[in-house]
């Protein structure tokens, strides 16, 4: 009997030791760390994007989109042994993907907006590939260097203002940004091969793809694709003097108005108005935005730290969000994500559905709302002193520097007024 008990205890001890050893064995990385090249299928086009994955387990993993000098980080979730879920931060969309047996990643870019089944773009991704469009050594020699400033004439079903392209070419490599009255495209990256060029950009919202041709007279023709359905054609002429309409003159107060008036709910449903005591006698910045809008999040990434630094100088700010669903609970979720990400310490209100006509109706003193974002600056007497349409980020160079310089100069002057 003693021998049997001893044998049983020995067997249990060995089994426990073996089990502990197996459980303690280091787990294999859930996905390869390093640089990847993804390719969306957009209509009949292949739209490449580059990204980096870091982290040996889902809890520490970071997914970084790479566009020229720009980097955008996102959190990775593992939803099964071989599946990934990457929420696009404040944008209500995600990459949903599977790690295949050969190490490749396949999946789709999926809209998460309730009752919206539009943007679903399939993609594949391969580890270790760093190029964008053409594998090094396979490009044709460029027929022309397209570096410079371009006047882009737009052709679409709806009347669309012309755009300005800022391009930089080094050998076959092409980078740049497209400016419009609503803002900029963020940084684009691509290539020139022979008399053709391609650019793409993916920073979280739907990817951008531009394909064009360099004509014999050195003009450009091409097409810009935004998401699945929004495709516009353009002609381009190099023009160092071309400019967009003045963003300070596009939206203005209707005749007879000096002040802006609105009453809208905050994220807890409490009504907020410019006539509230909190805003009396202060300079107030009103930012009209949407979390779905990349220029709006770029504007917020500028305004929030500026406000946190200057809020004790007699200045307040309000963000009015127009979202992809006319529902306060949904807006509380999307705008709440924006608040957390950018450490917003000013009031955020919900304006309604993301529609320029609706926004114009909610703010009847304005002649029209032309773009998200639109920034309105109000002086200490409650009178509107400035309205700026759109936003141009750091990639626009001198445009951004001029904007920041004017912003600080004008706000300093208004804050100094009694």
UniProtKB/TrEMBL annotation:
Residues 253-409 form the Thioredoxin domain. It comes from the Bacteria. The keyword Iron does not apply. CDD domains: TlpA_like_family (cd02966). Keywords: Signal. InterPro entries: AhpC/TSA, Thioredoxin-like_sf, Thioredoxin_domain, Thioredoxin_ResA/DsbE_sf. Residues 1-24 form the signal peptide. PANTHER family: PROTEIN DIPZ (PTHR42852:SF13), THIOL:DISULFIDE INTERCHANGE PROTEIN DSBE (PTHR42852). This is TlpA family protein disulfide reductase. It comes from Chitinophaga nivalis.
């Amino acid at each position: 009997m003693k021998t049997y008990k001893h044998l049983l205890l020995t067997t249990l001890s060995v089994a426990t030791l073996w089990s502990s050893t197996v459980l303690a064995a280091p787990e294999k990385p859930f996905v390869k760390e390093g640089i990847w090249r993804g390719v969306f299928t957009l209509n009949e086009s292949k739209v490449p994007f580059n990204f980096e994955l870091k982290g040996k387990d889902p809890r520490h993993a970071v997914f970084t989109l790479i566009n020229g000098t720009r980097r955008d980080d996102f959190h990775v979730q593992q939803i099964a042994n071989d599946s990934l879920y990457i929420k696009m931060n404040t944008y209500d969309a995600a990459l949903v993907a599977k790690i295949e047996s050969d190490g490749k990643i396949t999946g789709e870019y999926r809209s998460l907006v309730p009752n919206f089944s539009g943007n679903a773009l399939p993609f594949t991704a391969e580890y270790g590939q760093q190029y964008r469009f053409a594998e090094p050594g396979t490009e044709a020699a460029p027929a022309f260097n397209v570096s410079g400033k371009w006047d882009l004439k737009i052709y679409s079903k709806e009347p669309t203002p012309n755009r300005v392209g800022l391009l930089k070419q080094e050998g076959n490599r092409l980078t740049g940004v497209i400016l419009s009255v609503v803002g900029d495209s963020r940084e684009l990256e691509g290539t020139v091969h022979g008399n053709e060029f391609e650019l793409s950009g993916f920073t979280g919202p739907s990817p951008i793809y531009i394909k064009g041709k360099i004509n014999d007279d050195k003009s450009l023709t091409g097409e810009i694709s935004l998401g699945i359905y929004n495709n516009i054609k353009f002609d381009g002429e190099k023009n160092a003097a071309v400019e967009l309409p003045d963003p300070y003159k596009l939206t203005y107060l209707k005749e007879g108005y000096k002040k802006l008036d609105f009453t809208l709910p905050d994220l807890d449903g409490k009504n907020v108005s410019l006539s509230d005591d909190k805003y009396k006698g202060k300079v107030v910045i009103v930012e009209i935005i949407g979390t779905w809008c990349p220029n709006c999040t770029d504007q917020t990434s500028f305004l929030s730290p500026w406000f946190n630094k200057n809020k004790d100088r007699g200045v307040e700010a309000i963000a009015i969000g127009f979202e992809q669903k006319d529902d306060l609970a949904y807006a509380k979720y999307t705008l709440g994500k924006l608040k957390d990400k950018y450490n917003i310490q000013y009031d955020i209100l919900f304006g309604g559905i993301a529609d320029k006509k609706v926004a114009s109706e909610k703010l009847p003193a304005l002649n029209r709302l032309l773009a998200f974002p639109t920034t309105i600056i109000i002086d200490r007497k409650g009178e509107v002193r400035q309205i700026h349409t759109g936003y141009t980020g750091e990639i626009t160079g001198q445009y951004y520097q001029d904007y920041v310089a004017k912003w600080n100069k004008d706000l300093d002057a208004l804050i100094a007024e009694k």
